[in-house]
Task: inverse folding
């Protein structure tokens, strides 16, 4: 697991961390039951404050991505298929909603949007 | 014991300055940064904690123990770094070590040597012949070599080059691997705090302005920029202070959620640096 | 507290050589033992206080794991230890020099030793509370210079003082022969102890209320 943080981004560092870990979990790169680095070790490696990694883990735990055992550490939660799919869908849904807002602002119709999606998906596949 | 240091309603009066009813705590296992303008009372507070200055009212607990009644046991577990050199100028590091080491229960000679090597400090040179940077590194080497549970530093990196400041941060990152260690340090170099502070204590004129978790600050405070016609006679409560020019205004808000609901996207709200907060807080309502 | 006392001796490491030189020099030039002891104790006391007040050293000591009680105790006990060690060393010098110089050296009587201890202790009892209470740089420096001058101006002043000392001791002898010796010694001893203890107590109070 490699985490890259940007000090210049508007996004708070703890959010960057939790987002990246979330991605790894959603993509299955971090398997269920994997032991995550301790918040202190992670803080040292990333050269951030302990409270930053603590926050990141707390958020991940709150959203059910990881769980902690006192004295042992934090582990990746069992991501059952449906739940995982649900989460992945939710991420996409959020983005779609954003795009729909923009379309409404700029007067792009639903049909035009669907056409664009079809084209861009193909382009991506190539 | 959750707090390494607990300050409760402490007062101390001087001729033209006083600390009044000061209360805050320093959480164990974390780095707490202590900020404030010159003369705000940072050094005084640290000296009160170390019982170098007698408090007039209030209570100070360190490791859960009263800092006057259990002075010796407490100081055995504290590593201190002060702004000015406090070591005997006529002695060398080796001679100083012979004085200091036996006073600590957990003095670690090997650890001390490793720091001397790491900081490239000459053991036989008289301290008065050292540069300011070397003196500070010496202080740090002593502070870190007796397995102290609490490291208290008063402006440890003022006058030191940025490279060395980074090295100190690295040492602190290492130190914080141990969740029983606590660091409390005052500094003007707020960028150092951005990199390692977990909590921030901010005082001004002997009063506590806030004691917050580092990230909470950016969630509550913000620099608000907008055009002057947005402002009324009465300024929003949450504006700590404001700077107006012919081009527009710049204000520090301590509740950006309020500000956002008030002005929407008619203003730009930016993340404040600790410096911004200190600057605007100092200006206070006087310039509004 | 042992470390505190040790610290005071280590800090005067090089001064010790100077003290030794004075001891040898004045022993050779036939000065009374008691006087040398008193003079050296005065030096030791002044320096012991000086090094701690210099710069920010008192911040250092009070940041190390010591209580203020211990710090003051180490000062008072340190002087007593110095008295003891100096006596031994001077006695040793006299013993060695006896063979070399084969003069009969003046003094060395118990009365003289005890008187010199008493004077040294009285000096300390005055010096510590006064200069901890008023650590005025100027006062300190002038006092130190005064003492150094007295020694530097050499034998004349010192031997004149020595004469005063011998007269004083003779006076004590005459005075004391009027009373029972034991009673006298005891009362003198008790008074000195009382003054020393009160001074210790006073200095402690002063020091405990100090801000660094």
Result:
């Amino acid at each position: 697991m490699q985490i890259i943080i940007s000090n210049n981004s508007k996004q708070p560092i703890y959010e960057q961390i939790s987002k990246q870990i979330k991605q790894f979990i959603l993509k299955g790169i971090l398997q269920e039951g994997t032991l995550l680095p301790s918040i202190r070790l992670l803080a040292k490696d990333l050269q951030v404050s302990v409270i930053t990694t603590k926050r990141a883990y707390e958020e991940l735990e709150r959203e059910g991505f990881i769980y902690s055992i006192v004295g042992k550490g934090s582990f990746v939660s069992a991501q059952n298929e449906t739940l995982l799919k649900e989460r992945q869908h939710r991420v996409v849904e959020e983005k779609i909603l954003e795009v729909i807002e923009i379309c409404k602002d700029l007067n792009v119709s639903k049909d035009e949007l669907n056409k664009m999606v079809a084209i861009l998906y193909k382009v991506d596949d190539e | 014991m959750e707090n390494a240091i607990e300050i409760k309603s402490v007062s101390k009066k001087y001729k033209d300055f006083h600390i009044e009813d000061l209360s805050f705590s320093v959480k164990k296992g974390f780095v707490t940064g202590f900020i404030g303008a010159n003369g705000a009372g940072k050094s005084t507070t640290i000296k009160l904690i170390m019982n170098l200055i007698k408090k007039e009212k209030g209570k100070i607990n360190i490791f859960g123990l009263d800092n006057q009644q259990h002075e010796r046991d407490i100081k055995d577990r504290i590593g201190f770094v002060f702004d000015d050199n406090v070591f005997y100028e006529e002695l060398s590091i080796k001679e100083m070590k012979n004085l200091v080491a036996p006073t600590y229960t957990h003095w670690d000679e090997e650890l001390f040597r490793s720091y001397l090597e790491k900081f490239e400090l000459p053991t036989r040179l008289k301290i008065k012949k050292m540069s300011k940077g070397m003196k500070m590194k010496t202080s740090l080497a002593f502070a870190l070599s007796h397995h102290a549970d609490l490291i208290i530093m008063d402006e440890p990196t003022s006058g030191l080059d940025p490279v060395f400041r980074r090295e100190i941060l690295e040492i602190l990152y290492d130190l914080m691997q141990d969740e029983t260690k606590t660091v409390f340090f005052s500094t003007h170099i707020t960028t150092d705090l951005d990199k390692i502070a977990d909590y921030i204590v901010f005082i001004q004129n002997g009063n506590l302005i806030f004691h917050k978790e580092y990230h909470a600050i950016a969630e509550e405070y913000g620099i608000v920029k907008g055009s002057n016609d947005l402002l009324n006679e009465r300024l929003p409560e949450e504006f700590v202070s404001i700077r107006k020019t012919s081009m527009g205004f710049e204000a520090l808000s301590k509740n950006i959620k309020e500000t956002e609901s008030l002005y929407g996207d008619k203003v730009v709200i930016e993340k404040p640096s600790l410096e911004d907060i200190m600057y605007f807080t100092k200006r206070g309502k006087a310039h509004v | 507290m042992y470390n505190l006392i040790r610290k005071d001796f280590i800090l005067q490491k090089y001064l010790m050589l100077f003290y030794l030189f004075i001891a040898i020099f004045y022993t050779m030039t036939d000065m009374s033992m008691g006087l040398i002891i008193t003079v050296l104790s005065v030096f030791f006391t002044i320096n012991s206080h000086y090094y701690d007040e210099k710069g920010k050293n008192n911040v250092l000591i009070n940041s190390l794991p010591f209580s203020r009680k211990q710090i003051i105790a180490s000062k008072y006990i340190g002087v007593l230890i110095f008295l003891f060690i100096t006596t031994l060393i001077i006695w040793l010098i006299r013993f060695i020099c006896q063979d070399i110089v084969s003069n009969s050296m003046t003094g060395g009587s118990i009365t003289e030793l005890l008187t010199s201890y008493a004077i040294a202790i009285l000096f300390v009892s005055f010096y510590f509370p006064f200069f901890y209470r008023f650590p005025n740089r100027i006062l300190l420096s002038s006092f130190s210079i005064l003492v150094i001058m007295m020694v530097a101006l050499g034998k004349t002043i010192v031997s004149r003082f020595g004469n005063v000392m011998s007269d004083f001791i003779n006076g004590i002898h005459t005075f004391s022969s009027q009373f029972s010796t034991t009673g006298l010694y005891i009362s003198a001893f008790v008074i000195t102890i009382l003054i020393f203890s009160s001074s210790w107590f006073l200095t402690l109070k002063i020091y405990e209320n100090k801000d660094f």
